Each structure stands twice: as C-alpha cells, then as structure tokens.
Amino acid sequence: MTSPAVRDRWRERRAGRGRACADEPSRSDSPDLFDPAPYGMGLTARRVLRLWREQRRLSLVGFAYAFVYSALSLIIPVLVARAIDRAIVTHREPLAPLLILIVVLALARGGVNFLRRYATSRVGIEIEARVRELLYAAYLRFPRAFYDRQPTGQVLSRATNDLYPIRYFIGWGMVQAIQSAMLIVGTGVLLVITNADLALWSALPMPAVAYFAWRFGRRVAPISRAVQARKGDLTDAANEAVVGIEMVQAFGREEIIQDRFTDRATAIRDEMVRQAKVEATFLPPVFYLPSLSVAVVLLLGGRAVINGSLTYGQLALFIQLLLQIVWPLEAMGLILDLGQRALASAGRAFAWLEQIPLLPEVSPDRAASLPADAPVAVSFDDVHFAYPGGAEVLRGVGLRVEPDEIVAVCGRTGSGKSTLLSLLARYYDPTGGTVRLAGIDARALPLSQLRGAVGLVTQRPVLFSETLRANLLAGRPDADDAAIADALELAGVAKFVASLPNGLDTVIGERGVNLSGGQRQRVALARALLTDAPVLILDDPLSAVDTELEREIVAGLRDGLRGRAVLLATQRLSTLALADRVAVLEDGRVVEEGVPEGLIDQDGPFAGLFGEDAVVGAA
Ligand SMILES: Nc1ncnc2c1ncn2[C@@H]1O[C@H](COP(=O)(O)OP(=O)(O)OP(=O)(O)O)[C@@H](O)[C@H]1O
Ligand SMILES: [Mg+2]
Fold first, then answer.
1. From the alpha carbon of 387, which atom of ligand 1 is closest?
2. Which atom of ligand 1 is nearest to the CA of 411?
3. For the segment 467-505, what is each residue's pLDDT rounded down to a tens digit?
4. Coil, strand, or helix at residue 553?
5. pTM, rounded to two decimals
6. Which of 15, 69, 279, 521 is most buried (CB neighbours < 10 A)?
C-alpha cells in the first residue's frame, strides 16, 4: 500500500513544487537554476509527441499492423463458429477449406504480430536513443556549476535507467493501448450482433474488470515512480564508493558506505514489495472476473442452445472472444501505469534539457573576434564572483597580463586563485565586472574561439583514456613529432615518455598505464604548451613535482612560455621564479603586486606568505 508520505511527495511533484526526492536534505529555498522541477504531464506529452513525429512513418506502420492483428483476432473466432455450425453440427459446408483458412489466418496473425512488435519496438528504441542523445549532448554543454550541483549518480541514471519507461511505453504501451481498444470495441460489437441479450449479461463483470485495472494503474504508478527516483540515489551511493574506494578502504568506511547503500537498496526493495502487494490485490480480479463472464455464458448460453435460440457455434464464439479480451483489459491498467512512468521520466529529462542554462553562446552576427595570430593581453576589471548559493569569493579583482608576460597569482589556500583562473575561459561567468582578452569582453567571443585561445592546466589535471599522443594532440591536432618532443622536453616529461615501452603510443588512464600525479601534471603541461593558444592558464602546474625537477623545468619553461600571456597560480616559491610579476590575492582582491624580489623585502602580504621560505631558500 502507498504510504501517506509517498503519496504526498508525488502529489507535491505533480503540482510541480516537489524536489527530486523528499528525503534529500533541502539545499536551498531559492529557486534553483541547476535543479529545475520536472515537467508536468501535459508539457512532457507535447515534447514526446514531437519526438514521436520524427518516427511517424514507422509508427503508422505499427498501427496498421495492430489494426490487421485486431481484425484477424476477430475474424478467426467467427470462422471457428461457422465451422462448428455449418461443417460439424450440420454438413452444409465441407470442413477442410474452412480449417485451412483458419490455420492460414492464424499463421498470418502470428506474422503480423511479429511485424507489429518489431515496428513499434523500433520506434520506442529510436525515441529513447534520441532523448539520451539530446541529454548527453546537453551534458557536454552544461556549465560546471551544473556538475557542482548535481550528484554524478543522478546525472548518469537520468540518461540511462531513467529512460527505459519511455521505450517501454512508446515501444509497447501506445500501440498496445490502441490495439486493446480496437479488440475490446470489436468484440463488443460482434457479441451484440450475435446475441444482444447474452452479450449484455456476459458484459456484467467487465466494468469491474476495468475498475480494478484502473485502480491498479492508479495505485502502482506513484510507487513505480518512487522506485525510479530512488534508483538515482542508489547509483549515487554506488558511484561514491567506487570512485572513492581508496579512501573508503583507508578510513575503514566500508561499513558506513555499505549501510548507506543498503538503506537505499532497502528503500527500493520496500517500494517494490509494496508494488507486489498492489499487484497481488488488483491483478487476480482482473484475471479471473472474465472467467465469471464465461460462466455466465455457459449458464445462460447453454440454456439458449438447449432451447434452440443460440447455435453451438455462437456459444463457442462467445467463449473465444471473452477469453481473448482478458489480456487487453489487463493491459489497459498496465499501460496507464507505464504511461505515467514514461511521462515522469521524460518530464525529468526534458526539464534538464530545457531549463538548465547552457553557457550563453553569442549569436554569430554579434560575436567579436580575437585578432588572428596576434598576441593577446588579458585583463580582469573589478571582477566579482560567487559560486551559486555561496558567498562572494572574488570581490573586485583588478589584474592585467600583457601579451608577453608571466603573472603569478598567489595567496592562501582557498583565497580564490583557481576560481579567478576559471573565469578566464568562462568555466564560470563573473557575477560582476569584466574579463577581457585583447580588450574584448570574454562574453562577446564565441566559446569555441575563446577556449581555443586559452591553453589550460588545471589543478587536478585530467587526461583522456587514450594514447599519450592523442592526449597531447587534443589541443593541436596538426602538431608534428618534433613539436611534441619540444613540448615534452619543456614540461620535463620527455625522459619518462621515452622510458615507456610504447612511447607516445602508450594508452594511459583507466584502460591503460596509470601515471603518477607528477607525471600526469607534466603531460598536461606539455599538452597545454603544444597548443598555439596565445593565453595559458597554469593552475599550480608543478605542485606534484619534486623540487629538483621543478627547478630544472622552471629554468627551461621561462623561455618556452615567451610570447604568450601566462596566468599562473601557485603556492610554491620555486614555481614563482617563472613569473615576471606577482599578484597576491587576499579577501577576494589583489592586495599587492610587483616583482617577487621586490615584494619579499617589503613587510607586505607577499612577505607574509613566503618570507620564511625565502630565507630558507636563500640560505
Ligand atoms: N565548485 C565550487 N562550488 C562552490 N564553492 C567553491 C567551488 N570551488 C571552490 N569553491 C570555494 O571558493 C573558494 C576559493 O576556492 P579556490 O579553489 O578558488 O581556491 P584556491 O585559491 O585555488 O585554493 P588552493 O590554493 O587550495 O588551490 C573556496 O572557499 C572554496 O570553498
Ligand atoms: Mg586552487
């Protein structure tokens, strides 16, 4: 049975006020840009219909088969009745031709059924694939803030598990509903034509069947939707454990994680048990009430046969047809449930597809363009930034990097260095002020051009699970081996690559060789150096490299970086040696700027950060 809590949650959801799951801690009461409420039935149905139209031809073929199938299902019992009356009971017609016709039509019905299933399943599969494709394409264009907000498990399950009901409903439910309706109506008409009285009597239990089927659909729909929603939570729990397995084991958190997983799995199990109960309550009547019709027909029809007002064939027709509509009647209940489930999952998918703001692309006619092959200066003008729902991290940063200058941003951990750097390639947009490249507002540049102009080494660099070569070429596909070798040399990773048995063709990452943190960092650095981007962002690019190697790399890199505007974030004095100028970030502002050598002698924030280190370094 449905618990009041579940019912309330779904009522709330239907009204469009609900959250993904009511037991989640409520995160914020402000309307949440990156967690929009799922679409309601009407809105979703219109969108599904639009996708369905793309498959119109195949769908119509499916409907046509459904029609033929229903017609054959009605014709065959009529022929059987005729065979009984005219060839078996009386001998007015030979039996063989009728028998052959019946067998042929039965075979044809089997064939048509196959074709219908094939056609409609295809439609379902195509539409499911289409929604998944749209969603995945959107995932690739969603801003980082979306991923900050949505747990990975939800993101994954919404594009996988969550979409199955759409396929089942469109691939099976829709046509089955129409076919069932045709069969039920056709059966009714045939029975009334044959014997209106008997038809009425035998129809007596049918409203009850329909009622139970309908009640079943109503009861089971919210439960199965709850199951669906909880599957995302389960994927989440599993995902967390798998991704963090090292820490889980290191801190002996297996039990806690296991408990969390079990809790969520149990929640799903409980809902499923509830579903089984509803099924056990409502499905048997749906199944057995039609047998009551058969009993009525045997009793009343049998008497009619005995007193001669009904033929044997007609009696057989009644029984055949009544047994034949048990399934369509039951299917109606299932389809109601399935339809609601499909609309619910499509509603979630479409809400994401349409409501999550993509990084706004500038329209081509209004887009500015960076000067081709020219150096680019970078400037931050009074830049403010807060993460969605968070306090201001940057509060009026002013900073300029000349086209041929290396500027290092330093500051305490958490001071906003990475944040500042991520604004440059528009992974986030500033909440106030302007970021400019070559004097042009970054928001006026087409995203592809902007990202092409900015080479990037993130603080925790990610390499693709491909060959080293493919990784290095990601930013500049036409680079030749000599250029690759130079980049590897500059990044201090040439020796390591040479030591690999397959060299540049070694597959790395999840499907290949695992690199150490420092190796990964240097490959990422080489990848950024290889691009001909006029602007480079290096977020603590050598933090995982030992000091000696770092010193070597820094020595070579200073020249290697010439000709570009480089913005570097670092915590380490040794990496600071790269910089022409240093800016100190504190309280969301640049509080000090100058050449490192000059700053260290002043009693300012920079000296506060590095003073002791510098003394040690000098000693
Ligand atoms: N994705 C995010 N969502 C919300 N807040 C964030 C996010 N990333 C960072 N923050 C917050 O913004 C502040 C600045 O973080 P940032 O990563 O920019 O610091 P940082 O100077 O790069 O630190 P570190 O030296 O440790 O790399 C921190 O208080 C952090 O908690
Ligand atoms: Mg950082």
1. 4
2. 21
3. 999 999 998 899 999 999 999 999 999 999 999 988 999
4. helix
5. 0.75
6. 521
